[in-house]
Design a protein that fits this description.
- 18% of the residues lie in helices and 38% in strands.
- By secondary structure, the protein is an alpha+beta fold.
- Helix 1 crosses helix 2 (157-173).
- The protein starts with 6 loop residues before the first strand and ends with a strand.
- The protein contains 2 helices and 15 strands.
- The longest helix is centred in the middle third of the chain and has 24 residues, at 103-126.
Length: 232
């Protein structure tokens, strides 16, 4: 087993799609092969954001990164890999590799994640008794943010949906800068709005989000407000 942590290059550069690294560990877990790198551009699934997809290449072989896991919030990241090349079983420990992620997918995840932060801020301002608790920033009509606290009246939800879409459009048009801070716990904040602890990938300005549609506003299980949304 390797020791230490994986340097997360995506913390400081969301658009970094290609980078070099060194293999620190090459092992198996339940029959699945994984490598640990000294640094990575691959974001593992967590915090409501999916794993990145892409490849790891040596001078001789190309490996597909099929999934990623992390041992702890600040621990090592395992890159589970497969290849169609039959002679690629030799250990990669100590080898220099090149990583490449699917940048289009990464930016879609970043747009959804950043939109979720913007939505959380607006809801907490419009409904002071609510607090954003969890986001799910997946594609395919799955993105949502959950809030709990003092729920609004059901008859006000239609008007709230309209207000959210109007304010989202305005804040996106203002193209506000987005800052990441890593003093202690990492936080992500949009200028003039509340910052949230977050380990995900984000854009540099709200204008990069694009158009946001509020898909649904509903009360779930009588105790949570669930707001579904999409970006386009």
């Amino acid at each position: 087993m390797t020791t230490g942590v994986t340097e997360r290059l995506y913390y400081t550069n969301t658009r970094l799609a290609i980078a070099d690294a060194q293999v620190m560990e090459d092992a198996h877990d339940g029959g699945d092969r994984y490598v640990v790198l000294d640094r990575t551009i691959f974001h593992p699934q967590g915090g409501g954001q999916p794993s990145d997809v892409g490849e790891i290449r040596t001078a001789d072989h190309t490996f597909t990164v099929v999934r990623l896991t992390e041992t702890s919030r600040d621990g090592v990241i395992r890159h589970f890999i497969t290849t169609q090349t039959p002679d690629a079983a030799a250990s990669l420990v100590g080898r220099a590799i090149t990583m490449e992620i699917n940048l289009e997918a990464r930016l879609t995840f970043a747009r959804l994640h950043t939109a979720g932060h913007l939505l959380a801020n607006i809801v907490e301002e419009e409904c002071p008794g609510l607090v954003g608790r969890r986001g799910h920033h997946f594609t395919g009509g799955q993105a949502f943010v959950l809030f709990d606290g003092v729920l609004p009246a059901k008859e006000s939800l239609t008007a709230l949906k309209t207000t959210l879409e109007t304010r989202l459009a305005a804040l996106i048009a203002e193209n506000r800068p987005i800052a990441t801070h890593a003093d202690g716990a990492r936080t992500v904040g949009i200028e003039g709005l509340k910052a949230y602890p977050c380990g995900g990938t984000h854009l540099e300005h709200t204008g990069e989000i694009g158009a946001v549609t509020v898909r649904s506003v509903k009360i779930e299980k009588g105790k949570e407000l669930k707001i579904g949304y999409d970006v386009r």
